[in-house]
Amino acid sequence: MLQQTNLADSFTVPGTSLTVNRMGYGAMQLAGPEVFGPPRDVDTAIAVLREAVESGVNHIDTSDYYGPHVTNQLIKQALHPYPNDLCLVTKVGARRDEKGGWIAAFSAKELTLAVEENLRHLGLDVLDIVNLRSMLDVHQPKEGSLEAPLTALAELKHRGLVRHIGLSNVTPTQIAAAQEITPIACVQNIYNLTQRADGGLLDQLAAQGIAYVPFFPLGGFTPLQSVVLDDVARRLEATPMQVALAWLLQRSANILLIPGTSSLAHLKENLAVADLTLPPAELLLLNGVA
Ligand SMILES: NC(=O)c1ccc[n+]([C@@H]2O[C@H](COP(=O)([O-])OP(=O)(O)OC[C@H]3O[C@@H](n4cnc5c(N)ncnc54)[C@H](OP(=O)(O)O)[C@@H]3O)[C@@H](O)[C@H]2O)c1
């Protein structure tokens, strides 16, 4: 298949040689129900990953705790040996219990193990970007020191196992404190059309050139629902999910998208957003949704 160019333009992650298209892909939906165990349809999961990369996606978000291990193993099976420009971004800081619960795994030993397992399951010698995922509260950013786990992760970077460090589920105070310890390449927090608590932070990071990677761009486990979104989508002959992604792309140039899907049809729909421009009047309506 021919590569699409310009998947909503590229972004160079600050302090790195990593340039990625702004339209990426989040692999979490490829694991089984509740992000636990294998997918119902392995062949489709592999096909989704290959289609994404063949279409020009060069930024894939993953973690070894998805499954656990499942999405990384699928990525390796589908895409290894990787194209030179493919940036795989992973997360550490959590692990799963035997029932699929999410547990903090913040000790230096656990973080080292997590980096080693990501490397092994992805088939890599070094990880491009590793996000430290705060688990002080599993659902939302919560103040508290991240100094110890971040120092441990910085040591793994020093050892050459990690190229760049990012943060996830964090507050502005934690980001500022982290920048005293190590450069921060990107921040991955929840943000979408209806959940905009991070608006100020997003603008601050844009001013510093730091990538902001919203998770749950489509609402995650609770898909976005809005009459305004539906109306705008109808007028633009797009789907509501496409409009929600286009709104994020137009919100700020430092936003990198990683919508998750286990469906080839949804993947194609999401990638097509690169060609969707929201007119000012529709943007204004969408800005008023939250
Ligand atoms: N740092 C963190 O704490 C954190 C937390 C959560 C997620 N993440 C990352 O962020 C990525 C994105 O988040 P997410 O996947 O949880 O949520 P999301 O992208 O907001 O939404 C995914 C949901 O939307 C559906 N969907 C996708 N495209 C669609 C379309 N075009 N039309 C209709 N439905 C569509 C998917 O179902 P189908 O599979 O049926 O398409 C899935 O149920 C994840 O893959 C993961 O890599 C990070």
Q: What is the compact description of this entry?
A:
By secondary structure, the protein is α/β, with parallel strands linked by helices.
Topology:
Blueprint: E1 10-12, E2 19-21, E3 25-26, H1 42-54, E4 59-61, H2 70-79, E5 87-92, E6 94-96, E7 102-104, H3 108-122, E8 127-133, H4 147-158, E9 162-168, H5 172-179, E10 184-188, H6 199-208, E11 211-212, H7 227-236, H8 240-251, H9 264-271, H10 280-287
Parallel strand pairs: 3-4, 4-5, 5-8, 8-9, 9-10, 10-11
Antiparallel strand pairs: 1-2, 6-7
Helix pairs in contact: 1-2, 1-9, 3-4, 7-8
Bound molecules: NADP nicotinamide-adenine-dinucleotide phosphate.
Task: Characterize the structure shown.
There is one protein chain. It contains ten helices and eleven strands. It is an alpha/beta fold and 290 residues long. It has one domain: TIM Barrel, CATH 3.20.20.100. The strands form three sheets. The chain has a seven-stranded parallel sheet with strand order 3-4-5-8-9-10-11, covered by helices on one side. Helix 5 links the parallel strand 9 and strand 10. It is globular. The N and C termini lie far apart (39 Å). The mean pLDDT is 96. The site of NADP nicotinamide-adenine-dinucleotide phosphate has 28 residues, from helix 9.
